[in-house]
Amino acid sequence: MSAASIGGGALVLLLLLVMARVPIALAMILAGSGGIIWLSGPAPLLGQFKTLLWGVFSNYDLSVVPLFLLMGHLAGRTGLSRDLFAGAHALAGRLRGGVAIAAIGACAGFGAVCGSSLATASTMGKVALPELRRLDYAPSLATGTLAAGGTLGILIPPSVVLILYAVIVEANIVTMFMAALVPGILAVLGFALVIRLEVWRNPASGPRGAVMGRAETLRNLRGLV
After folding, report:
1. How much is the mean pLDDT over the chain?
2. Contact at 8 Å (CB) between 146 and 103?
3. Using CA atoms, how far apart are residues 183 and 193, in angstroms rounded to an integer?
4. 10 Å Cβ neighbour count for 219?
5. Are 188 and 145 in contact (CB under 8 A)?
6. pTM higher than 0.85 for the full model?
7. Is the confidence at residue 71, as pLDDT, over 90?
8. Most buried residue, 10, 50, 85, 194, by CB count within 10 Å?
């Protein structure tokens, strides 16, 4: 059997495993390992496992990835996400659609801490979505805001995806962060502008938030420091 046929068979096996709800990482390992064993036998596979595993775990650049994930977990558990949302709410909540804009700002702040879009979307969804529902925001605007805000996790530096991309293409990580800073800020402003346009077109989709007193505003703003 040719190498191309074996590669095609491994791809089919991968798709079948994914459809069977096998975790993607395990499915890729099984499909790739099966292809290598078919082509070269088990000895080269064991050699590659030894070399690749050591190469990945000893890579200094990749060592920051679990640290970012740990930092994001700690930020979520310690209430940083709630503080960010409360502070942004104090700044923009009195505007029509302001709570949705506050959610975008909180997503940007949390994304800068954890560097992961999934963590940003899931964490801020738990914090902001109940408030958006309580204020009778349109479901499409509320969920769309949080889905879009979650993408800021991979764009606002520092970002896990930017680190992995820089390692793969052998680029400077700091340069990648600097290159993503302006697009990240523009994305935040663009999302806020879209929200304002949506509530201008349909005022009922994004009502104003409650007006806070000075003491409550100052207390919530401390969460941004």
Report:
1. 80
2. yes
3. 15
4. 14
5. no
6. no
7. no
8. 85
